[in-house]
Model the fold of this input.
Amino acid sequence: MLDKINRWFAWIIGEIALNLQCYNAIAMKIKHCVTLLFLFALMSPYAMSAERSMTLADSIMADTTFVLRGVMSKKWNGVIKFAVSDPIKNKSHELRAAGNGRFEMTVPMRGMIQNMYLYVGDAVTVPVCAGDTINIIFEDDDMRLTARDPKAQLDLQLAEIIYNKMRKRYLDINRTYNSYNDKSGYKRLKTVESDSIFALVMSKTDYYHERYKNIVDTFIANHGTPRLEEYFRVAGYYGPLRFLAYGNGDMKVTRGAYMSEMRNNIPFNFYQESLMKYPEYAAFMLYYLGQVTERVSCTFLRRGDYHDKVQHAMDVSRLISPSRFLNELSEVRMIDANMLLGVDDNYRKHMIYVYDNLHTAALRREMERRMAEVDRLASGQPAPTLVMKDSDGRKYTLDDFKGKYVYLDFWDFGCSHCITEFGVVPRLREYYAGRMDNVEIITVCASDASKSKLEKFVEKHKMNERNLILDARSSDSVYNITSFPTYILIDPQGRIVEFYTDRPSVILFKADAGVATTFDKALTPK
Done:
C-alpha cells in the first residue's frame, strides 16, 4: 500500500513539474491532482478492508481435506454417519468400512479448522484441522481417537473430556430453553413464568462458562497446552450463547457482560485477522448477524414489500459486521436458514436480491448452486427420488404412498427437538380428526440404524407412525439433511407441496392463533 502512495506522489510531482511554464495549466493540474488525492484518501481504507476481506474469504472458503482411518466393530454394520461444519451449511457424510471393519476416508471441508460431529448414539464433537489424519477405533460401546502429532493428540484428549463432562450440562440448557419456548409461545408472549425460565437459562449458561473454563485450565496444568487452546476457550464461551441470541438475551449478548468481556479479553482486530484460525468465534458472531437479519426478513418473505425489508435487514447486518465479506457470508447463511420457511416465489426473489449484492466470487458460486437446488424443491415439482427401508430391510419409495399426502419427518438420534415433536403427533391427529385419513406420516431416521436400536428407540418414545430408515445411497442428495427435525409435505401425485414445511408443534401453535399453514390448506377440501 505504501508503494502505491509513493507512486501517486511521484506522479503528482512530475505532472506539476512538466507544466511550470503555464499558470493555467498548473492550476488545472493541481486541481485535478488534489481531487485524485482526496478520492484516494477516501477510498484507501475501503481498499485495504477489501484486501483483508479477500484474504479472509480465501481462507474460510478454501477447499481443504482431512483423513479418517481405523476400524469399527460389527455392531456398526460397516457404516457410521458423521457431519462436518461449514461456513454455509454443514455437510453430512458416511464412513464405510470394508468386510474386515477397516476404513480410510479423505474428507473434504472448507477452511483451516472445522468441527466433526460423529453420530455414535449421540453427536460427539471433535475439532479437526486441514491436513489432519485421525485414527479412530469404534468399539461396541466406546471409541478411541488418536493423532500422530502430540499437540493434536492433546486436542482429541481435551475434546473427549469436555464431551464427557459438559455434554449433559449443554443438553440441560437446551431443555430449559425449550421449556422457555413452550411457555412464551416461541417468544411471542412474555409472562412472569417465561421470564423466570429464561433467567434460569442465563444462570445455567453462566455456570457452564465457569465449569468449562476450569476444565480447560486443569487439563493444561496437568497435560500441557493443546494445539487449539483458543478454539476450546472460544467454543466453551460462545457455545451455549446461541440460546440467548435466540431468546430475550440479545441485550446481554451484544451490549452486556458477555460481549464487553470478550472485547476486553480479545482485541477487535482478532475478529478480522484471526477468524480463519478460530472459527468458533466466527460461528457465533455470524450466527448472531444472521439472527439480526432473519428477525427482519422472516416477517416479510410472503409480503409484497419484502424488497425494502431485505434492504433494511442488510443495512442492520452491515452496521455490526466488521467486513464486507463477513456480512455477505451472513446473508448467504440467512438464505439457507430461511429455507425453513419454504421455497415459494418470494423466497426466489429474495435469493436473487441477495445474489445481486454479493461481491465475493466464492459466495456467488455458492448462491448459484443454492438457487439451482431451490428450483428443484419448488412447490409443484416432482419430489426427488427417496428410498427408505424398515427395520427388516424392506424398501419403500414415495410411489408406494401415491394417492395420499405424505408428511415426512427427518430425524436422528440425540436430537431432543425430534423427540419433543414425536410426542406432539398424537395431538396433531386429534386436532385434525376426520381429516387425516388421506395423510401418511412417516418418520425417517437419518442414521442407518440397526433393527434392535431403532425398535428400542421407537418403543421408548411411543412413535406410533410408520418408522423408516433413509437409504442415503439410493436417494437424491437433497435428503442428506443435517438440521433435525426437518419436515417435507408431498401431495398424492408425488409432487412437492412444501419442502421444509412446519413441524407439528408449529402447525398447532399457528392453528390456535388462527394462522393457516400449508398443512392445514392441504387437508382442507377444495
